[in-house]
From TrEMBL:
Organism this protein belongs to: Corallococcus llansteffanensis
Protein name: Metal-dependent hydrolase
GO molecular function term, any single one: hydrolase activity
UniProtKB keywords: Hydrolase, Membrane, Transmembrane, Transmembrane helix
Keyword Membrane annotated: yes
Transmembrane stretches, start-end: 30-50, 62-81, 93-119, 147-167
InterPro entries: YdjM-like
Length: 178
């Protein structure tokens, strides 16, 4: 994926997490945080310059795309958020959905080696039975015709998430108790 879909999921989860009463500045901060979370598993691309093979457990779409990694990441973030006074259940649900969604979205792509969703129990790379999302070219190839095609596809495919995240909402009226 070109990360556009991951960002869209992160933005939508952020909107659900803050609700309709947040200031625009707070909403933007939370959207940035959830978008960063949604793309965090792809930090494993550092494996390429380090010489770690793509197919290795710590290669691209390996361990960092697994359910275990997503749940570990969720536990860490919920612990930090709880200390900051965030609602624990809502935080757990939104963070877990975003963290788990990365690997699930990547198995829907039509290229690469699949994702090690079941790591550390299995290093097998998994694809979904249907792969409707075109895989994005890596690096400078992203600026090719294929890269432009993937970007346009993801903008259309994930438009409902972007609309949900950014569509203006009316603030709830709170009755005063005077």
């Amino acid at each position: 994926m070109a990360s556009i879909g991951h960002v869209a999921v992160g933005m939508a989860a952020a909107r659900a997490w803050v609700g309709n009463d947040a200031s625009r500045a707070r909403l933007v901060r939370v959207m940035l945080a959830f978008s960063a979370l949604s793309m965090l598993p792809d930090a494993d691309v550092i494996a390429f310059p380090l010489g770690i093979p793509y197919s290795a457990p710590w290669g691209h779409r390996g361990a960092t795309h697994s359910f275990v990694f997503a749940l570990w990441l969720t536990a860490v973030i919920v612990a930090i958020a709880r200390r900051a006074g965030a609602p624990p259940l809502r935080t757990f649900v939104c963070v877990a959905l975003v963290a788990v969604s990365h690997g699930l979205l990547d198995i829907l792509t039509d290229g690469g080696l699949g994702c090690a969703l079941l790591w550390p129990f299995s290093n097998a790379r998994i694809f979904a039975p249907v792969t409707p999302i075109p895989v994005a070219p890596i690096g400078a190839y992203m600026f090719s015709g294929r890269g432009l095609y993937v970007v346009m596809f993801e903008l259309l495919f994930f438009a409902p998430f972007f609309l949900y995240a950014t569509f203006p909402r009316k603030k709830r009226l709170v009755e005063s108790t005077r």
